[in-house]
Design the sequence.
């Protein structure tokens, strides 16, 4: 059984993606065979750092999200996301006390209740589904699997799929890189997520309010894709030990 990833890296005084690069975890993974994956033993302080960093990033980008939604939607995505993540920030200490899956469940309920619009149920579904799928998750591999299953639930909820100029156009490629590279993907996560959001610019929206604009939705980044890239970028940075 592989050691939990974060404590292991901490013990070595390394941010976790360094640990991976330095081969600290590779030897163990080889010992355990092809199925091995580093455990992702998050402690209270790790969860708190992650929750706070995500919430602050979303809140700090309210204006940008508003501008993007003004261009191809109704201009409320920034306010919606700020409202949801202010609620998360307010509860951050209590949320961090919970285990990772239980924290995700509580966050999911907060997001459904507080974001509103189309994005609330979709982000809420992502968090709630990850909580359910990840209830027994022990390794990073388990969490990546849970993320993939949660994306499928978001697709069902939104009656949508990748390529339709939505937040799924960030979730799907980021998940694919995680499947391919595991913990080594963390160091690239912010860049990959930002490029994926940018790649929605030339797309024609087929779901959400922007779909009403038809061809006029072309030439603008999707607001939900941008908020998804902020969140996943922070996940990558925090798990790499950046603040
Ligand atoms: P609303 O569209 O109700 O004003 P928001 O502005 O908060 O809600 O969120 C808009 C974002 O939600 C879009 O940019 C898009 O990424 C996402 N979205 C909307 N509808 C769907 C859908 N059916 N499937 C996936 N994502 C969607
Ligand atoms: Mg909107």
Sequence:
């Amino acid at each position: 059984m592989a050691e939990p990833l974060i404590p292991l890296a901490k013990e070595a005084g390394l941010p976790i993606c360094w640990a991976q690069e330095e081969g600290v975890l590779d030897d163990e993974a080889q010992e355990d065979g092809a199925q091995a994956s580093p455990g992702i033993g998050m402690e209270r302080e790790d969860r708190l750092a992650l929750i706070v960093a995500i919430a602050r990033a979303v809140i700090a980008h309210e204006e940008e999200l508003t501008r993007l939604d003004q261009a191809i939607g109704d201009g409320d995505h920034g306010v919606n996301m700020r409202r949801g993540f202010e609620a998360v920030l307010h509860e951050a200490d209590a949320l961090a006390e919970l285990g990772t899956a239980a924290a995700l469940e509580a966050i999911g309920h907060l997001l459904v209740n507080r974001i509103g619009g189309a994005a609330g149920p979709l982000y809420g579904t992502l968090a709630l589904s990850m909580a359910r799928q990840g209830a027994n998750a022990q390794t990073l591999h388990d969490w990546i699997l849970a993320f993939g299953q949660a994306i499928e639930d978001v697709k069902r909820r939104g009656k949508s799929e990748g390529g339709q100029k939505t937040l799924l156009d960030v979730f799907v490629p980021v998940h694919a890189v995680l499947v391919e590279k595991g913990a080594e993907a963390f160091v690239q996560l912010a860049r990959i997520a930002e490029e994926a959001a940018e790649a929605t610019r030339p797309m024609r929206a087929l779901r959400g309010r922007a779909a009403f604009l038809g061809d006029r939705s072309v030439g603008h980044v999707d607001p939900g894709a941008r908020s998804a890239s902020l969140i996943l970028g922070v996940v990558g940075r925090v798990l790499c030990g950046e603040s």
Notes: Residues 140-158 form the longest helix (19 residues). Residues 21-36 have pLDDT under 50 and may be disordered. The CA atoms of residues 167 and 228 lie 6 Å apart. The radius of gyration is 18 Å.
